């Protein structure tokens, strides 16, 4: 026997996955995760038995509900569904999937629509941060068509500005969890930063890489992850996360100086190279660029009110607000697309006690 649950498949930014209502999922976390694994078809590198696309960017789920908070409209819980193992990680946030939350919430009737733009106040359950999304809603209907292009996505769509607040110390309560802006792990100079996404930042040349192209080649041989994973495991311990061997945080950012942008980065997820750049990762990198004494600040071009981060698919731009020498707000332009809606089927036994 199978049970069907309402599902909307959407592209959010450079990611894609099902958007589900929290009320349609089991309250028990283990059962909920079992449902998400079944929905995505994991564990299986092809994910042929579910909606997953066999890549980290396409094995993500957004869980949405009406918020009980007076300063927010909806709650958003992000889930990264592992491809190779039966594992669901809700520790990190995903700023790309976040781009679809506003349109989804409006069309689900969770937010009162306005004309021509509807503001949606989103509480990210993963990190406890608030994000404000502005969604085009002419005549009270979500508009997905427009002329905004983002690196990593073909074509153009309507712009969805996302403004992040309260992102510093999202998981640990500190910008630099160890109290140091720069430190060494196994002889490599690194910055461990917690801003929207906990990250390990290091300079590419310090691990023998001269460019983003060199990163891609190192990924193809597997050498890159053999080099970075031991560093990441130590970083996780130092940041207070314990054993992170089966956790996707902290993420890894390999940085390079740039002549045509503020800085360049290869973003690891952490066991695969992101084909572009996560929004939350971009905020962490931008925050490190704005802070004194970090690996990023040492490599970055002088900052303006807009930070341009070059990644393998192009450039991501962030409008930034600064105060007291650090970032206080960051706005990034994303787009989204509603791909299909219907019902997804999962084994009924997951709902046996509901």
What are the defining features of this structure?
354 residues, alpha+beta, 17-stranded mixed β-sheet, 6 helices, 17 strands, 19% helix
Structure summarized in a few sentences:
The protein is of the alpha+beta class. It contains six helices and 17 strands. Helix 1 links the parallel strand 2 and strand 3.
Describe this structure in words.
The structure is a single chain. With 354 residues, the chain is an alpha+beta fold. It is 19% helix and 35% strand. The chain has helices spanning 29-40, 95-107, 212-221, 223-238, 279-290, 295-299, and strands at 2-12, 15-21, 60-66, 74-81, 88-89, 117-124, 129-136, 160-164, 183-185, 188-195, 197-203, 251-256, 263-268, 306-311, 314-323, 326-334, 336-347. The protein has a 17-stranded mixed β-sheet that branches. A hairpin with a 6-residue loop joins strand 12 and strand 13 (263-268).
Distance between the termini: 16 Å
| Largest beta-sheet details | 17 strands, mixed
Give the uncertain stretches in residue-range form.
Answer: none
Q: DSSP strand (E) fraction?
A: 25-35%
Can you tell me the overall shape?
globular
Helix/strand-derived class? alpha+beta
**Tally of DSSP β-strands:** 17
Radius of gyration: 20 Å
What portion of residues is helical? 10-25%
Task: Give the count of helical stretches.
Answer: 6
The SSE string, one letter per element, is: EEHEEEHEEEEEEHHEEHHEEEE
Average predicted local confidence, pLDDT: 94
What's the SSE blueprint?
Layout lengths: L1 E11 L2 E7 L7 H12 L19 E7 L7 E8 L6 E2 L5 H13 L9 E8 L4 E8 L23 E5 L18 E3 L2 E8 L1 E7 L8 H10 L1 H16 L12 E6 L6 E6 L10 H12 L4 H5 L6 E6 L2 E10 L2 E9 L1 E12 L7
Parallel strand pairs: 2-3, 4-6, 11-12, 13-14
Antiparallel strand pairs: 1-2, 1-17, 3-4, 4-5, 6-7, 7-8, 8-16, 9-10, 10-11, 12-13, 14-15, 15-16
